[in-house]
Structure formats: C-alpha cells, structure tokens
Design goal:
Elements: H1 2-19, H2 41-54, H3 63-69, H4 75-84, E1 107-110, E2 123-131, E3 139-149, E4 152-159
C-alpha cells in the first residue's frame, strides 16, 4: 500500500514542479535607457573613480562632464546633477562632490564585492579607499552605492565617511532633497 501511494505521488510531484517556474530577481530590475559600462559593481565603481582621477573637477559637473559621466551614473543621480547644474536660489555645491575632501582624491581603490552573498542584489554599497598625494597620511574611506539598472551597474550615491566631510548631510543624493 505504501509503495502504491509513493508511486502515485512521485509523478504528480514531477508534473506540478514542471508547471512552477521561479524567475530570478535580476529579471525584475528595471531598464536603462542610457549607455552603460560593463562589469560587476566593483569594476564599474573603480572605472568611475579612474575617470574622475584623470579628469578631476570641483562642484557640480557641467553639461559636457555630465555627458562624459552618463554611462556610470544612475538615472536618478544623473537627473539630480542636471537639476543642480541649473541656476537656482540654492547655494552651489563646492569642492569635489564625489569625495569627503574638498580638494578630492588623487588615488582611489574600490574594495572587492566578491564577498557579497546575494548575487541578485539590486543595490550594493562598496567602500572606497581614497588618498590625497602631497599630504602625507591623508587617507580616508567613502562609500559608493551601486545600483543595478537593467543589466548595468551604476553609481547611485556617494556617502561621505571621511573624518570631516566638506558637504554636510551624509551623502551626495541628500544634497538634492528639498
């Protein structure tokens, strides 16, 4: 009798499992209408900092710089930076807005994301080791928040973790909240 029940349950179980599909989370991560940089979150973040180090700038990037940064930036951060570049009554952000230090960094090393257990993650915060040449011992860490848009990893925010950040509020995106 036991074997007859098992013999009937096994085909039924296989039939039901064939009807049930599990979709991975990465298929439900939205889309991206802009070009993007290939690679994992840490690779894309490092490429962003490499670009920043080659072409340092202070304050909110102008239209030409924003166009150059577009493949690295998330849609919301890009829109915030576009709005911040428009004349307004709000005081302009000064110094390197992508770093805790107003003069910015001269070297940057993004920590590896290989220890992140959730491969379906949509947002990943990575620590960045930053330093300023010419000022011995001046090293600090900031955090870069990477967001997945479609199949691309993009920079969504910078959290200022340095000892005395020049921009108050904790992060770049918080500067744009009204």
């Amino acid at each position: 009798m036991k074997y007859q029940v098992f013999a009937a349950v096994i085909p039924l179980t296989l039939l039901l499992s064939a009807c049930t599909t599990v979709e991975p989370a990465y298929k439900d991560i939205g889309s991206r209408n802009a070009p993007c940089i290939s690679g994992g979150p840490d690779e894309v973040a490092q490429k962003f900092y490499d670009l920043r180090l080659k072409h340092p700038s202070l304050g909110v990037p102008d239209g030409q710089q924003l166009a150059q940064y577009r493949p690295w930036l998330s849609g919301p951060l890009y829109q915030d930076l576009l709005k911040a570049g428009q004349p307004s009554s709000k005081p302009a952000l000064r110094g390197d807005i992508f770093s805790s230090l107003p003069a910015g960094a001269t070297s940057a090393s993004v920590n590896d994301s290989s220890t992140i257990p959730n491969t379906d993650a949509r947002n990943i915060a990575l620590r960045v080791n930053l330093a300023r040449a010419g000022q011995p011992g001046l090293q600090w860490q900031d955090e870069i928040l990477m967001a997945r848009e479609g199949t691309c990893w993009t920079v969504d925010d910078i959290r200022y973790l340095g000892p005395a950040p020049h921009i108050t509020g904790g992060s770049l995106r918080q500067q744009f909240e009204e």
